[in-house]
Design goal:
This protein is an alpha+beta fold. It is built from twelve helices and eleven strands. The strands form three sheets. The protein has a seven-stranded antiparallel beta sheet. Strands 3-4 form a two-stranded antiparallel ribbon. Helix 3 runs antiparallel to helix 12 and helix 4 packs parallel to helix 8.
Length: about 400
């Protein structure tokens, strides 16, 4: 019996030393960069994300702005692996500290920024209110579309307000999740969207439920156009982009000549970042109040909570606790809460108020691609940014 116990003891010792040896060998190999789950320190130090010198952004370094440069190096190292990413910018304390373009991207590259457009439309509603074109968010939607008033058969539509539209709580259906509405809106012979305020049925009472509706955002853009007497692109250039020394370089129109309030605005990544910085700074850009602070505060409130759809699921994305304001999303990753404009494919403007940081990603808008693959591409961008945000320390 004693001999058997000694054999077992000896076996345990050999097992222990074998495991210890394996751990030691793996430790040596990992430190030498021969094995491991990610790039070595030397690899990361070679990653270049220095902002390009041209343009009118104030440029600084991550070290000067109090951010670990290795966190950015890891971000940009991973970004280089994504086949649909165009651009990635990081702004800290008002300084552009990291910038790089990939695939088809460049400093002046333009592409449809998809539904991130909705956050610009929201800002234009705020500017219309600031300028007196609109009187209140309580104004009724139908008052701006008198030609359809007699065609309305659902009396609930007469109660939809501008605020309901801003909150995506007007009651109109989520076209992207209902194939017949999506096909009717985007794949018929024309892009005449306004009649859909009549023929799309309400799926909930106004003001009660969140439904992500492109029609809703388009109606907001048309309301601004009709109230202010200028097409949305011209109005935006004069009152939003020019004061930031930015340029809207195209904005898709429908067959009635109205710019799409829900998508397809064309901007450079740097100009998207200017917009994000202005919102982060309470509506101020370079000392000029472009949008009222009250409107910014109202826009970033959470009127809907716990939203789950498409890229917001764990399968595709890393953003959690998702809410919605006035055409702005909000979420959490790790210890950080943030606001963001979101466009199909991974076109993001992300505002981290606690870190005084703006992150912009531009990506292939994936036109006419709505099956599983596009969500995978968008999810890859989402997870890239999510991992970076999670790695950031609290300040």
């Amino acid at each position: 019996m004693a001999s058997k116990e000694r054999k077992l003891s000896k076996g345990r010792q050999l097992s222990f030393f074998s495991i210890a040896s394996v751990i030691l060998i793996l430790s040596i190999l990992t430190s030498s960069g021969l094995v491991g789950c990610g790039p070595s320190a030397a690899d990361l130090e070679a990653v270049d994300y220095t902002p390009l010198p041209e343009g009118d952004w104030k440029i600084s370094t991550s070290e000067k702005q109090g951010l670990d440069p290795m966190l950015l190096a890891k971000l940009y190292d991973e970004a280089a692996e994504l086949e649909t990413l165009y651009g990635l910018l990081v702004i800290k304390n008002g300084y552009l500290i990291a910038e790089k373009y990939f695939n088809e991207g460049s400093i002046d590259q333009l592409s449809g920024r998809q539904s991130s457009t909705k956050s610009f439309t929201s800002a234009l509603v705020g500017i219309a209110l600031d300028r007196g074109c609109l009187q209140s968010v309580d104004q009724k939607m139908i008052d701006f579309f008198p030609e359809y008033a007699d065609e309305i058969t659902d009396p609930r539509k007469e109660q939809i307000t501008i605020e309901h539209l801003l909150q995506m709580r007007g009651g109109y259906p989520d076209e992207e999740m209902t194939s017949n509405y999506f096909e009717t809106m985007f794949f018929q012979d024309n892009w005449e969207f306004l009649p859909h305020l009549v023929d799309f049925p309400l799926t909930s009472d106004p003001g009660t439920e969140f439904q992500y509706s492109n029609l809703t955002s388009h109606l907001l853009g048309v309301i601004v156009t009709r109230a202010c007497g200028a097409d949305l692109e011209s109005f935006a250039q004069q009152h939003l982009f020019s004061p930031m020394n930015a340029q809207v370089s195209g904005w898709q129109v429908d067959d009635d000549g109205y710019n799409w309030g829900f998508g397809e605005i064309y901007l450079t990544a740097r100009d998207m970042a200017k917009f994000g910085q202005m919102v982060l700074d309470g509506g101020v850009y370079d000392g000029q109040q472009i949008l009222s602070a009250d409107w910014i505060e109202a826009s970033l409130q959470r009127y809907s909570e716990k939203i789950v759809r498409g890229w917001l699921t764990p399968r595709y994305g890393s953003f959690r606790d998702c809410g919605y304001g006035y055409q702005w999303w909000s979420s959490r990753v790790g210890k950080h809460y943030f606001y963001y404009a979101s466009g199909h494919g991974g076109n993001y403007i992300i505002l981290l108020d606690d870190l005084d940081m703006v992150i912009v990603t531009t990506a292939d808008p994936l036109h006419d691609k709505w099956d599983e693959d596009p969500w995978e591409y968008e999810g890859a961008v989402n997870r890239l940014v999510g991992r970076f945000i999670k790695s950031l320390p609290k300040e």
